[in-house]
Prior knowledge:
pyruvate-formate lyase- activating enzyme, binds FE3-S4 cluster, five-stranded mixed beta barrel, six-stranded parallel β-sheet, CATH 2.40.50.140, globular, binds iron/sulfur cluster, Rossmann fold, 19 strands
Amino acid sequence: MTTKLRRYHITTFGCQMNKADSERMAGILEDMGFEWSENPDGADLILYNTCTIRDNAEQKVYSYLGRQAKRKHEQPDLTLIVAGCVAQQEGEQLLRRVPELDLVMGPQHANRLQDLLQQVLDGSQVVATEPIHIVEDITKPRRDSTVTAWVNIIYGCNERCTYCVVPNVRGTEQSRTPEAIRSEMEELGRQGYKEVTLLGQNIDAYGRDLPGSTPSGRHMHTLTDLLDYVHDVPEIERIRFATSHPRYFTERLIRACQELPKVCEHFHIPFQSGDNEVLKAMKRGYTQEKYRRIIDKIREYMPDASISADAIVGFPGETEKQFENTLKLVEDIGFDQLNTAAYSPRPGTPAAIWDNQLSEEVKSDRLQRLNHLVAQKAAERSQRYLGRIEEVLVEEQNPKNPSQVMGRTRGNRLTFFSGNIEQLKGRTVKVKITEVRAFSLTGEPC
Ligand code: SAH
Ligand code: SF4
Ligand code: F3S
């Protein structure tokens, strides 16, 4: 389409879904002959893959965009693209706010980047935010790692948590077929990848929108069935999955994790609040008692499993007492890791217009108190690794110490040990843990 060498840059905000989408969009651009530019100022095409989960995530996008929009006045052939969740949320309004933009495209349109870009090169300013059926991607993603890879298994979310924009911006659930997932994993195995993380906003919903069965006649309706079906993909040594929803989480899944050796003993199950009234107002569909029962069950099968989660503080109407129930849950369960956030009202969500919003002071005070407890509990959880031998899949050199490599334990703890990355990348090494910190470990190969 163009003979001149064109360079592209992508900055990705937000969650693993966005990272996976960015890798696919980068693959499309490279197929079209674009070359990666680490420095955005050296690129002829800049794509921001954006997140709108909280207001500060969205504001960050505008500050990045403002800078590049200015640059466009000196370099009119610069192509500026906003993809992802802010694009979906704002649509046409983004063009009014930043007229320099060439293309605004929602997450469901990621695989269509080539078509959309062609329309831009033909001279149009394009907005692609209408809901569509996501087409299977035939381009090879340009993945950030050569060891671990994301594989989407279900797009969208059909839940209606009252604080959350995701259903508005990611659309309704759409599962990929087990065959498409397996063949992507087989390709990853052939390319030398060792670990796959299966992705979905509500991964336990996998398969409920799929018709019938596979050609072999087997039903592939649940995440558990899918894990069975992909477990023997050659070369893939580890399988992870995220994010689990307590409302749909099953004992069958726990059993499958215990029985299938490649599936890592790590569960990411956001609880959001430890208070039943708040959970109800959030429309989460479970109680804190049910959440505790899930964790108990996991620990009954796998006493050493790692547990991580997300939590929100300062949801509208949350009292000090209700917040203390969240602290209590964190105290009792002892998470290996917890992503915490102060509630942020999001346009188009029910809770944003309730009149019982809390002040920023209360929210940030609660966030600090929770974070303090989280670090303390994570440090306690790390203690159990001391002196133990853990399997670490080596991913990268330690950026802060080139004589060390880093990787993750099966339980997802980041671990450093001395070694040469050229020799060890992609290898699983037995490491004796000699030092523990709240969120990472150091050890010696043995
Ligand atoms: N699908 C996942 C969460 C996706 S969003 C689930 O159901 O748990 C990632 C996290 O962002 C959420 O778990 C929640 O803790 C946080 N989050 C979502 N909306 C938010 C809001 N309006 N304010 C603050 N945090 C929010
Ligand atoms: Fe958002 Fe709830 Fe869906 Fe998670 S399950 S993405 S929190 S609506
Ligand atoms: Fe953000 Fe969209 Fe993910 S809003 S958290 S990038 S689904």
